[in-house]
Amino acid sequence: MFNDNSKLPIILAAGAGVLTVSAFYYWYKRYQYHYVPPQQWRKVGELSDIICYPIKSCGPVRVNTVNCSKLGLSDGHLRDRVFMVIQTKDGKFITARQYPKMVKIQPKIEGPKMTLSAPGMMDVEVDFERLYKTKPIKCSVWDQPVEAVDCGEDVARWFSRYILEDDFGLRLVFYAKELSMRNVRPKNKCVDTTLREDTGAFHDATSFMILNESSLIDLNTRLSVPVVGLNFRPNFVVKGAFAYEEDYWRWVKIGEVVFRSVKPCTRCIFTNIDPMTALRSENGNPLNVLKTYRMFPDLGATPVLGTHLGLRVPGNVNIGDEIFVEA
Fold it and tell me: Of 37, 80, 213, 222, whose CB is crowded by the most CB atoms within 10 A?
């Protein structure tokens, strides 16, 4: 048999070229899948509410206009879920799932200070300028390590007294970075649209979540005691869309700001807490009712309402902006 070794480099080069082209094609298709918005859009409704939650699990701040950054809603020092309450003993976060009264902690941000109010408590202030000069500490959210700045003794004592009725035990921490630093949580890897850059500050899944007003109205027809949008803690509420059509949205555009639909928002016992009274529902609703008709394959034993979003084209959004989805 005749062997022409002179052709071997050509064959190897050709093979390497095929692999390179294949790898580039795969990379390009993945890039397009995650980052390239569609060219055709259809209107589904309008933006009826914008809600920011500066402290994870605590009270809301409604705004009429806001900037959308990779980390979440942003308007000066007002940013979404950049504060979190942790246990002093181990640095692990707590939420209203364990302590429902947290939803009655109301933040107010004016200038370089955040003022916190709660029933039966004197107001306490947090100075943003000090936070940006303070060295971060280690803590964790959903068992993922994260760096955060401790907000000081006065506010730590305030949270401990209000939540634990003790002088010690809890601390407030602040996320001072501009970009997400956590990996995607294992439970959120059930879909292939989750990316590290979309994980937010102290968010559960992504930097943004949208709720469909019509889906909420339909849910309320199934409940003996109706619930409100705040039970589900959305950032955006859309009015005018058909109930549950958000399940099929791949891309969302609010005004000129573009988002990728990342995953359906799975629900937990937090939804059963009345955001006005901080009381849990006695019958386990709306969660139990959602479980009867809003279970999705591959998403575990928790029902779905709302959609997590990842930002692709930043900018400002305003109440009344038209909302479009991929045509």
Answer: 80
